[in-house]
Amino acid sequence: MKKEIIVKPSFTFKDYFKANLYIYLTRPAFIIISVVVFLIILVNVTNIFSNEVNLKDIFTSSFVFILLYPLLIIYSIYRHTKRIFKNPRLNENLSIHFNENYMEEVGDSFNMKFFWKDLKKITEKKDWFLIYLEKNSAKVLNKSDLKNNQYNELKQLFNSIDIKKSLKS
User: Is 156 within 8 Å of 95 (Cβ atoms)?
Assistant: First the structure.
C-alpha cells in the first residue's frame, strides 16, 4: 500500500476517558488486585452474615479503603485524562498520517514518527482504534474521525503490517 491516509483527529474528553478506562481495566495487575479485593469483601460479608464479626468492626480503615477502591481507580483515570487534555499540542492543527512504514503525528510545532516495528499492538474496539506505543500507553483514534473509505483503508493497512493486532472482521 503506497497510499498515505491522513486523519484529522477530534479530541473529546468522554472518548479518551473511556479509552483510558479500558486500557487500565485490562491490565493484568488490575485484574489480580480486583479479584483479591472482591474476595476480601466477600469474606467480610459472609463473616457478617454468619455473625462471626460485628458490623461496626468491619468498618476499619482497610475495609473502607477496599470499598472505596473502585472510586479511587475511576478518579485516578479521570485525573490522568485531564492531564492529557492540558497538553497544548492538542490545541494545534493536528493530523495523523498513516503509511506502510510509520504513523506520524503532525502539528504546528511538532512532528513525531512512530515506526510500526517499534509499536506494541493495535486493537480495534467499537468506537476507536487503540495503537499501543508501549505496553500500557496507547494513541486513541476515534472511528468517527475517519472520512469516506478511510476505515477500510486503515484496516487494510493494519492487516498488512507485521504487528500484533486485534481487529474486528
Answer: no
Looking up cell 487500565 gives: 24
Predicted confidence (pLDDT) per residue in 17-26, tens digit: 998 898 888 8
More confident residue, 50 or 6: 6
Task: Report d(CA 139, CA 135) in Å as an integer.
Answer: 12
- The arrangement of strands across the sheet holding 111-115 comes to 5-7, 95-98, 102-106, 111-115
* DSSP codes of every residue in 58-94: H--HHHHHHHHHHHHHHHHHHHHHHHHHT-GGGGS--
Q: Interhelix angle for 13-25 vs 61-85, to 10°? A: 130
* pTM of full prediction above 0.85: no
Q: What is the DSSP letter of 117?
A: G
Cα 135 from Cα 27, distance rounded (Å): 9
Which of these, 17, 13, 9, lies nearest to 150 by C-alpha position?
9
Which helix (H) or strand (E) element contains residue 7?
strand 5-7
CB atoms inside a 10 Å sphere around CB 165? 16
Dump pLDDT digits (tens) for 98-128: 999 899 999 888 899 999 988 999 988 888 8
